[in-house]
């Protein structure tokens, strides 16, 4: 197994932590209750199908899936998704780099980041993947102002393995569409609404 380092966040579907795997820094997503997946054949197949879909995707503005683990060294079920480690969130980039910059630099670099963000979201939607939680903490900015989307989950099994104790944080609500705030499901349209909010945040 890799070596866990620290918890990065907890969502309705997964707990996310930073780890080291074969000498490389990675981010690991693990369902709160793997047995729910293991105990239902259709859910297990959905997990494996969508994991393969994520593994096959390749886009500059979407975090890369390094691999998926379906069992541990003892053969016990252990459903993990391992992605590349991207450590600078968009809100930190905005507050520490864009806001102190001059107006021209702010506009130019902000537009570059948002173009990449829009391209990444378009790519996900073309593969029929709804992000569902688009907000600054789920956008990472790498070298040369390359934005990468993180934080999207396996939407077909998310509802089945959601943590019953998970509640939406107030800060997350700020980036939701009106229908999500009313308890509606995530959709392509709600992603676009959240994208607009993120764009306003970056450029203001």
Automatic annotation (TrEMBL):
GO terms for molecular function: ATP binding; protein serine/threonine kinase activity. It holds the Pfam family PK_Tyr_Ser-Thr. Residues 2-204 form the Protein kinase domain. InterPro entries: Kinase-like_dom_sf, Prot_kinase_dom, Ser-Thr/Tyr_kinase_cat_dom, Ser/Thr_Kinases-Pseudokinases. It comes from the Eukaryota. Gene3D superfamilies: Phosphorylase Kinase, domain 1, Transferase(Phosphotransferase) domain 1. This is Protein kinase domain-containing protein. It comes from Guillardia theta (strain CCMP2712) (Cryptophyte).
């Amino acid at each position: 197994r890799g070596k866990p380092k620290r918890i990065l966040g907890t969502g309705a579907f997964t707990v996310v932590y930073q780890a080291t795997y074969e000498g490389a820094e990675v981010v690991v997503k693990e369902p709160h209750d793997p047995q729910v997946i293991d105990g239902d054949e259709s859910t297990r197949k959905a997990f494996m199908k969508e994991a393969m879909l994520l593994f096959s995707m390749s886009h500059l503005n979407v975090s890369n899936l390094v691999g998926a683990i379906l069992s541990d060294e003892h053969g016990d079920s252990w459903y993990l998704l391992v992605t590349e480690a991207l450590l600078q969130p968009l809100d930190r980039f905005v507050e520490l780099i864009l806001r102190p910059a001059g107006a021209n630099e702010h506009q130019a670099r902000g537009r570059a980041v948002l173009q990449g963000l829009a391209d990444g979201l378009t790519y996900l939607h073309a593969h029929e993947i709804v992000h569902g939680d688009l907000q600054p903490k789920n956008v990472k900015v790498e070298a040369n102002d390359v934005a990468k989307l993180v934080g999207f989950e396996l939407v077909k099994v998310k509802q089945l393995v959601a943590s019953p104790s998970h509640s939406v944080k107030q800060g997350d609500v700020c980036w939701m569409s009106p229908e999500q705030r009313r308890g509606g499901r995530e959709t392509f349209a709600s992603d676009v609404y959240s994208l607009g909010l993120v764009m306003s945040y970056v450029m203001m």
